[in-house]
Amino acid sequence: MNAESARSATPSVSAVPFSDDVWEDLLNYIEEKRVIPIIGPELLKVETETGPRLLQEWLAEKLAARLNVDLKSLPQPPTLNDVLCSYLSNHGRREEAYTRLRTIMRESTFAPPLPLRQLAEITDFNLYVSMTFDPLMEQAINQVRFGGAANTEVIAYAPNRVADLPVERDDLPRPVVYHLLGRLSASPPYVISDEDMLEFICALQSEHLTPEKLFHALEHSHLLVIGSDFSNWLARLFLRMTKRRRLSDPRDVGEILADSHSLGDVRLVSFLQQVSMRTRMFSGAEEFVAELHRRWTARRATAAPFAGG
After folding, report:
1. Could you tell me the pTM of the whole model?
2. Which of 10, 39, 42, 208 is most buried (most C-beta within 10 Å)?
3. Residue 244 and residue 262 in one domain
4. Structural domain span for residue 167
5. How far is 232 from 254, CA to CA, in rounded Å?
6. DSSP 43
7. Residues 6+ apart with CB under 8 A from 210
């Protein structure tokens, strides 16, 4: 096992390491179109004027400057929620934060980060669920698969405008990026604050505000939750929401949480060990994508001679 594979052998929630067999099982599910990647902010490391930065940290600093919020008064590194709360506490108008954030993004020229391009190259994926509002996942797919042409379909959820998949997931004619927490626009709704997150999560659990085709796909697919910044309880709630049943109930599909913090959360690990034996955890979002991409590419190269008959 090489060094990268050795790092992947981090104990999962069920205390079974990411062995070669576990990776092979995952690749089999991917080939059968039974896996949906869910993309979080840890995968969005972009090249800025001061070097590589997480996009949302960079945006928080830029937004603070546009809204005249004193960065020194905020936790470091500041979040968009920190900036917005400080701005509102000084009688700022919420709408101004959204439109100025859109302006900041429009003025930027970030290339899609490598992990997003690697995920885009895995052509067995036809549905990507984004937990961020930026267009980088869409741009990565268009770049990798379509030579830059805008052939990826983009759908965004909003509590006041429920948008679902156009057809069942198996029948999608082209790749789809679904922004579960809203898409960048000049006005709400999309999630930049904790209050926004609360409103979206509550709406998504409402019988009349749920994108039914999307959630049917999430319920019956294996999920790769990569690079999320979920807190302990939000991670529990998100898994329960996507599976639409008790996590302890028997089910044929599982989830992988791959990020920088979940494995270090003793209470979350203990909870999942007790009630969700189909959930595994991997330390590092970029490392997980790199290893998945390496193994998927190697398998495709090995299978290519047989595909040609």
Report:
1. 0.91
2. 39
3. yes
4. 3-44+113-307
5. 19
6. G
7. 162, 204
